[in-house]
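input
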Amino acid sequence: MRCNKCNVEVKCGNICPLCHQKLDTNEINITNDYPPKQAKRKLPLKYAPKTIYLFVAIIAAITCIIINYATLPNVPWCWFVTAALAYGYLLIANTIYSNTEIGAKIIMQGASLVALCYIYEAIFKTSVATSYCLPIIISFMIIISGGLLTLFFKHNRSLFVSCNLISILGIIPIILYACNVTNVLAPAIVSAVFGGITLILSIGFGIKKLKEQYTKVFHM
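output
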């Protein structure tokens, strides 16, 4: 109960300890107590998904290595499978279950896929990594970063910097073609066009926000 005269809360008895006035027992008391904080619910799984995947991936990789060298030792396809399993762990641990900035996730995923393509090329003696895989993966990186920037630029302005850096990567296939590293021009042109358009639109529509982000990132 509360004494209206002294404005004090009386927990025991119906007499105010200050003015000794009898309190109205029929008074409705309104308290502002907050509900108790709920304890965090435990996850139903004892082990994290990435730990479970890592355990299964190690067993699968060892099995593939044994089968490969027992049946077809001249073609070490098991190492590509091992690399693909490692990429799967990277996808789970550093992309899905990670709080890393989304632009960094896109760059990491793109670099991992390119590395996987070069491993495939080295094992199976092909020539598709530089000519096709590299420009295609960069093009998808540019499209994804540009689309995310369009959707979430109000909530994640750091995407301006990431999108610009990824867009600049679009010129790499053209440089490789000019240096005669590859003789396939069409995918390189597509990558460069996507990168150039995305870079121009990003700078044109968000120059102020872009300056703010570059100042924060590079402490200019």
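quick obs: The two ends are 60 Å apart (CA to CA).
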